[in-house]
Amino acid sequence: MPVLHSIVHRLDKETGEAPATLAPAAAELAGSPALDDLLEGVNKAYHAKPKAWGHFLAEGDEGDAGSGSSAFPAALIAYLEGELDFVAFSRELGERIAALVAAHLSLSGHLLVAHTRQGDTETLTLALLHHREGFGIDDDLAIAPVRQLNLAQMSLAARLNLSQWRGDSPSKQYLSWTRDRGGRKLAEGFAELLGAAEGVDATGETRTLLKAFSDYVENEDLPEEQSREKTEALIDYASDQASRGEPITLEELSEVLDEQQPRAFYEHIRNADYGLSPEIPPDKRTLNQFRRFTGRAGGVSISFDSHLLGSSVEYDEAQDRLIIKQVPKQLREQLKRQG
C-alpha cells in the first residue's frame, strides 16, 4: 500500500475540565516498513469496528450531521487541489478533533492521518490512537515496561474513498466513520465535524439481506447439506468483504452462492422487492450472529437460522424440546392433510 502522505500529531488531555491541546508534528512521517505495518493494523482494526456509512452533505443540506457542510471537506478539496499542503491540512483537522476530544473524551492520544493509494484507488484514513501499558524484555533479558498502541481502543476513525468521492460514481457510501454504541454524542459530534450524513444503514441492510437469504433457502426447499453449504458461502464472502472494508455486491454474492445459476439469488431479491441497494456495507456483528443450527436423529431432521432462536424458535432446555412458532407453509399443509 503506497503511502503518499502521512503524519502523527499528539493530543494532550488533562483530567477534569481542562481543554485538549494539540502538539502538532513539524513534518510528515518518513516511509518505513513499520509505518506500512501500522497502517495495515489500523485498517484491520477499523474494519472490525461498528461504523456508519455515508457521504458529505452538500452546502445547505440538512441531515444526520445536523449543520450542513463542515470545514473538513472544504479543507480536503484545498489540499487535493494543491492550495493547502498536507501538514497544514492535517494540523487544521487536528485542532478541530482536539475540540471534540475536549468535549467528549478524557484520554490523550495520537492522531494519525494518512493518504494512501492501492491500485487506482486513493484513500484518506484518520484515526485517534491511544496507548496501553505492557511489558517487554530488553537486551539484558530483563523485564521492562513498554507503551504500545492499543488499536482496539480506537475512539475516532474515518475512512474516505477519495477516488469514489471525486469520480463519477453515484455512490453514497464513499465515507465511513466509527460509531461505537457507548459514545453516541461523540459519534454525532464526529459526523458533524466531518460534515457527513449516513447514506445507508449497514446493520439494517445486512439484516434484510440475511432475511432475503433465509426466504430464498425456504422457497427453494433445499436439502439440509446444500442449505448449510450456501449459508457458509454467504458468511465467508460477506465476512471477507467486511475484513477488507469492501461492500457486499449482490450480483457477485449471487454468483458465489450458485455457480450453475449465478443470477438465481439476485433475481429472488429483485422479484421480492426487499429494497436492498446493489452494494451493501456489511455489518460484522450481524453476520457473526447468523449461523444455521442443524440436527438429525430418529427420522427427524431440523435446520434453522440461528437468529431465529428466541423469536420464531424457542429451546426449552429443562424439557429438552424445541418450540416452533411459525410452521413453514409447505409443512403445515402436509400436517393438515395427514390429520
TrEMBL record:
InterPro entries: Nucleoid_associated_NdpA. It comes from the Bacteria. It is found in: Cytoplasm, Nucleoid. The keyword Transcription does not apply. Keywords: Cytoplasm. Belongs to the YejK family. This is Nucleoid-associated protein YejK. It comes from Halomonas flagellata. The gene is yejK.
